[in-house]
Amino acid sequence: MTEPRRGRGGEAVWVGAQVRRWRGRSSFGKIDLYTRGSLHSLAWVSVVPPALLSVTRPVRESGAPAALIAGTVLAALGQALCSKPLVTRALDTYLGRPSVDRRLVALGAVLFLATASGVVALGAYAGAEEFAELPLALGAAVVPFMISVTLVVPVWVGGLLQAVTAAVLCGGVALAGGDGATVLGVFLGVAFGSALMTGTTRLSAWSLGVMAKLHGAQEVETRLAVAEERLRFGRDMHDVLGRNLAVIALKSELAVELAQRGKPAAMDQMVEVQRIARVSQQEVRDIVRGYREADLGTELLGAQGVLRAAGIECDVRGDGGQLPAAVQAALGWAVREAATNVLRHGDPRRCDIRLETARDGVRLVVENDGVPPERAAASGGSGLHGLRERLAAVGGSLVAGPTGDGRFRLAAAVPLPSPRNSAPSRLEKR
């Protein structure tokens, strides 16, 4: 009694793991897996009719050699096995990745011809007119190879290949003794199967290609946003240090010349150099402090811009412009950490940021969807731990975790100082 339970439990664990893997994929990853899985499924399903119809009653009673029946079935199974790498590489070739191996294409063509020839030969033994399933078997035999070929050749070449294939198969059926109705049925079956698979395959591959380009564009846009911020910081540093360093260099040269002449004005110039150096040092500190300290308004706009650049719909309510500087800095860090978590974890499509201000405190709520189960079970990383310490420094608190419906919520609450205590607190900090 225990073994069946273990088996059912193992199956449940496996299914749960597959569901978690699916949910952990990005939107593009899900579309890519779905497209590839659909094409592979079509290729595998299409080999079933030739394999099964080769052992139907008309074929068994026709006296066809067992070797011919076995060879046809094995050729159909070989097509299925060959279709897995062939479809994968053909789709990669369509998307602009390394081209498909010609030897693999040749192997697929040989297996297709072997399957089709075996079905036609079995039709000749069984009587093409009595073998009513012959058009279905030949139409299905064309599908695995056409799925791959249509992705690696131009459209007109694929259409010409389909027409030649249909004509050759119809000629073989006619030579096998098929009448006009049977030949017409084979032509319609092969032409319809080829055209349907060609349209379905190219449309699926085109859709996947468009999604791949959009995914790449979103990544580029995100990197450009980061690069733009780096350029802004570099520009500010250049503006501050460029002029001051030039003045320091000139005054240092002047001090050297005055010192060589023995004039006391050289000391005055060096004192001026010292003063400019200290001013430059303070200006650099101010820039770095402004870059490192999180301004709430700037962080809200930045988070909205970065999330939208990543394809995530983001709605921001409130700006916190009237809050004290310490509170703004703490909540700004909360916004930055929350936006980072949204980008790094899960597959969100929407993120809502709300800033709720009351008389005694302010509350920041960041909520997003697309939370994978493994993140829902996690207790939090070092980023949230550091954020709790920053909020605790201003008397605030942080609550972060899943809401139970596939969403994740980060809520930071910071009390506001009373008007009577605000001024003394600033003096105490000084």
Describe it for me?
The chain is an alpha+beta fold and 430 residues long. It folds into three domains: 2-218; 230-292, Single alpha-helices involved in coiled-coils or other helix-helix interfaces (Up-down Bundle); 296-429, Heat Shock Protein 90, CATH 3.30.565. The chain is 74% helix and 8% strand. The chain is built from 15 helices and five strands. It has helices spanning 2-24, 27-45, 48-53, 57-60, 66-94, 102-126, 134-152, 155-175, 180-260, 265-292, 296-309, 325-344, 373-377, 382-393, 419-429; strands spanning 313-317, 350-357, 361-368, 397-402, 408-415. It is elongated. The chain starts with a helix and ends with a helix.
The major sheet is characterized as:
5 strands, mixed
- Mean pLDDT score: 77
Strand proportion, as a percent range, falls in: 5-15%
Major sheet strand order: 1-2-3-5-4
Shape: elongated
Which structural class best describes the helix and strand composition? alpha+beta
Low-confidence residue ranges: 1-6, 421-430
Order of helices and strands: HHHHHHHHHHHEHEEHHEEH
Distance between the termini: 74 Å
Structure annotation, total helices: 15
The tally of structural domains comes to: 3
Q: Total number of β-strand segments?
A: 5
Level of helix content?
over 70%
- Gyration radius, in Å: 36 Å
